[in-house]
Amino acid sequence: MLKESLALARQLPDVDLFLSRAGEEILNMYDIKIADLRQQFRIFRDNTASAAPVGLFYHGHYHGVVLAPATSNTVAKCALGISDSLPTNIFAQAGKCRLPAIVFACDTEPEVDTESPSDWVTLYPREIDLAHARTLAGFRGVTVVGSVAALEAAVQQHLAQLAQATGPVAS
After folding, report:
1. How open is the CA angle 96-26-102, to the nearest 5 degrees?
2. What is the DSSP letter of 58?
3. What pTM does this model have?
4. Fewer Cβ in 10 A, N or C end of the chain?
5. Does residue 69 contact residue 1 with C-beta atoms inside 8 Å?
């Protein structure tokens, strides 16, 4: 659901994208160019050992985090507290700063139809993948969703809550 996640991001104001090295590979597989994404988004790439962009979270630049789509690998790392990539570091720092996070987990159902770079396929997530998604859903301030519609609803709910608390969302 990469294309759908990016389509949703394009509808939102002032979105920054934080890409893991694996995420960059996946973008290439789907023929999505970083140069094209830069036309609308500020892009942070996973090219520093210390995940330097996380410092932005300490200075109030963000009101929340969306990991979308999040692979079973990323979900597992987040659920286990492992932060060894830019997205998992972002998730960890958002939690430490008590910013809400929405995670669009790819593996939340026993059977998933998904688009591969060349075709639609049916996958059968392992029980451990499903368990990690459930664990993550139990974290304070974390909403785990399993569909594009649920992702959009969770983002809209977050923006509505933010607008109610602070006024219209500018970033």
Report:
1. 30
2. G
3. 0.89
4. C
5. yes
CB 5 within 8 A of CB 148: yes
> In this structure, are strands 120-123 and 112-115 parallel, antiparallel, or unpaired?
antiparallel
Indicate whether 10 belongs to any domain.
yes
**Partners of 16 in the beta sheet?**
42
**CATH number for the domain harbouring residue 111:** 3.40.50.1950
What digits encode the pLDDT tens for the residues 14-57? 899 999 888 899 999 899 999 999 999 999 988 766 666 777 88
Strands 65-70, 42-45: pairing kind:
unpaired
Range of the domain at 115: 2-166
Tokens 């399993």 found at: 146
Residue matched to tokens 């960890």: 92
pLDDT tens digit string along 53-107?
A: 777 888 888 999 999 999 999 999 999 999 988 899 999 999 999 999 999 998 8
For residue 11, being part of any structural domain is answered with: yes
Cα–Cα distances (Å) from 20 to 15, 31, 110, 113, in that order, read: 16, 17, 26, 24
Residue 59 resides in a domain: yes
**Type of residue at 171:** S
